[in-house]
Structures are given as structure tokens and as C-alpha cells.
Amino acid sequence: MAERNIESLTRGLTVVEALNRRVYTTLADLHEDTGLPKSTLVRLLDTLISAGYARRISRSAGYCLTDRVTLLAGGFQSADQIVEVSRAHLRAVTRDHKWPLAIATLDGDAMQARYSTLSHSPFALDRIYIGRRIPLLISAMGRAFFAFSSDETRALLLATLQGTGRETDRAALDEQYIDRLIETVRNDGYAVSGPVQDDRAFGLAVPILKDGEAQAAITMRFIRSAITPADAAQQFIPILQDTAKAIASEI
User: Fold this and answer.
1) Model-level pTM?
2) In the predicted model, what is the mean pLDDT of the chain?
């Protein structure tokens, strides 16, 4: 089921890309551009039309995208804005409390590290590489984002993760585990990174929320030998939550 959902989504995006290449696109053009059967294209076009992303002009002219498709880029622009707004806030926390912070936004089926204050911290931790893709279900930032996503977004992410075959995504197949994870993170208001062999650091993360839905997540990283997750949460989660709220108020 998950594989069929992913395939349908991929085909739909392929059609959107093909429609974007011309002002008007006929069914024959789409068939030639995508290689998809015309019957499949008709079903996908009907779905796009019903959702408001495409319009049928005429039998001869074919189809075109609507202005609604520009909404698909809004999240990307918003993510850039969140990262820019967050920089000063994250640096201020590291300046006052020394531990490094990072912010990540969703990148398909994983989180992507967008900014880190590691260079401003005196603690030598594992490097949080900018651009690094971070698993959703074992990282603190991924867990925080996933748990506080909308039901629709979470369902789509879960269906995608179930079909990746990656070891880091295997937990997506365990329905009880996912339910417990969501409940725990939402009740606590923050997430802790999962156990990783030989990892000498751990992270705590909170979501940046807009209208109750996660837009990004910020994390603070700690050396395991210096502080326990429980003590770190007691000391720093209120600070992280206040920082997330301050960032959210500026976006």
C-alpha cells in the first residue's frame, strides 16, 4: 500500500513538472514528456484539477497549471525565513549556556541541518554538518518535527518511511512504537535522540510551531559524560521552548 502511495505521488509530481514546461500542454504532450499511459495521465490530471492545481482549457489546447501551484513553493521560502530568523536566537543561547544548537527543516523524508552554533561553542562535539540529512525517527529534531506535524503530513511521512528500506526508518513499520513516540513527545513537549551505538553525545529538540503545526525543529547537543538527558531536559527545555516561541513570533 505504501509503495503504491509513493508511486502515485511521484507520478503526480512528474505531471506537475511537465505542465510547468509549457503555458498549455496537451494530453499527447504529457504522454510524450512523461512516458505515462494516457489513462493514467487522465486520472492524475483529474486529481490535480479537483485539488485546484490544474485547469482543462479545451480539447485542443489541453491543460495548464493554476496559481495555486505557487503555494507548493511557499513552504520552502518559509523554511529559509525560519532559518534566517533563528540565527541570532540560537547564537544568543549558545553564548549564554555554551552548548551548541542547530536548526533543521524537513527535506522530503528526513530533516536537513540548516544552521549550527557549533563554531560558537567551547564544547567539542560531533560536527553537525550543514546540509546533512538527519533521520526522522531516531534524531531528536526528527522526532520533534514528526510528532508535532499535522495528521496529514505525518501520515504521508510515515507511508514514505515505510517504503525506504533504510535501517534508520525501520521503526516506521511498528505501529505501536510510532503511537508511543508521538504520545510521549507531544505530552513532554520535546524529544530526545534515540540510542546510537558509540555516540558520545545526545540531543534534545523542540519544534518551532505555527498554527500548532511544526515548521522546523531546534536541538541542543550534550556530551553524555557531562550531563544526563533528564538533567539536561530539566535545565534547558524551558530555554529551548522559549527560543522556539521567539523564532515563531518573527515568522
Assistant:
1) 0.69
2) 86
